[in-house]
Amino acid sequence: MPDAEAPARSPDLLRPRGSNQVGMRQFNERTVLQALRVHTSLPKADLARLTGLSAQTIGLITARLEEDGLIVKQGRVRGRIGQPSVPLALNPDGAFAIGIKVGRRGAEWLLIDFTAKVRERHAISYDFPDADELLPAIAQHIHRLREGLGPLAVRNVGAGLAAPFQLGGWHRTLGLSKAQADLWNQMDLAAEVRARTEVPVSFARDTVAACVAELVGGRGHDLKSFLYIFVDTFVGGGLVINSHLHTGAHSNAGALASLPMQSVRADGALPPQVMAEASLWELEQRLQGEGLDPAAAYDDRALQPPFAAATQSWLGSASLALAHAIVSGTAVLDLADVVMDGSMSRALLQALLEQTRAALAQCNWEGLWPPQLHGGRVGAQACALGGAMLPLHANFAPDHDVFLKAG
């Protein structure tokens, strides 16, 4: 049973709900909030049925959540047998979070509300990040987004940072000096950001954050288990098993960029990796080799003249590499579904999905069951959006690993 009601308090402040040791009352509150997140709006009777809590407990919890400004009552629903029901829903202004994506080609900041709707976005691009410029910019944008909330700034529960584990990895491919690469590879980026802001900062690998966004706000509503692929400047991914994010021993599960394309060569040379074919970096190089703007790899120009020829060539090799990764993943994981998304235009993603499906049809599936390949629903903002979901999860989700699904 929930504890006794707390004294009256300012509706502008959030009652601490813990992040590690969550008591039964707090767990029940989080379970109710998650049910409303998944189902958008529910009357108390449906909340009791979905959560398994008694009607009395639901009444006490929803009264507390409404007092805290986390949920709101909607209009009465009439026309059914019995008394009209009053659906409850998350209050969009109940809490806010900031998501930050730091990539090899650009950085992005998102401010999302309690329903995970993007309220504000800012992005910058660069050839490769300069730490002396980017670190202060990250703190400045966090401060600007938070202060822009005005009186609601106290409802910002933190920031989530999404970035590659080794931003300076593959430095020879990127044309970087070893010193440039070492600077980023040896830096604790999350600690650097925490030192520059008073806002709590969470961290996740960029494609893992994108996978979280897809799990919570995309295909995760329909699929229990899937291999997730995100095609960005480099390619990466994540792994969802039974509606939970599986990160692996080193939080690196789904790191498809490093998957070798063939066995070790007889001459001892290292085989090429998936990243060498299925990345937007490779498309950039093809465009640049034709004297074209490499930034077109990320927008609608990629499939238009004069960029289309180089893009079609890239699609042919990228789809084969991705098909190889999917077959390899299927052999190990035996998953029925694969979800692919990326930082490119929706039209280019659709073309990549079609060619990858065609490549999969030509693969050797002896002893395996081919999975179904789906397009992601979140899109290019997935990394930053997943980052923003991290502090919301830490403060309001009932499960330690990732958002649970009610019922």
UniProtKB/TrEMBL annotation:
Residues covered by region (Disordered): 1-21
Domain of life: Bacteria
InterPro entries: ATPase_NBD (IPR043129), ROK (IPR000600), WH-like_DNA-bd_sf (IPR036388), WH_DNA-bd_sf (IPR036390)
GO molecular function, one term: N-acylmannosamine kinase activity
PANTHER family: N-ACETYLMANNOSAMINE KINASE, ROK (REPRESSOR, ORF, KINASE) FAMILY
Native source species: Variovorax paradoxus
Keywords: Kinase, Transferase
GO annotation terms (biological process): N-acetylneuraminate catabolic process
Protein name as it appears in the record: NBD/HSP70 family sugar kinase
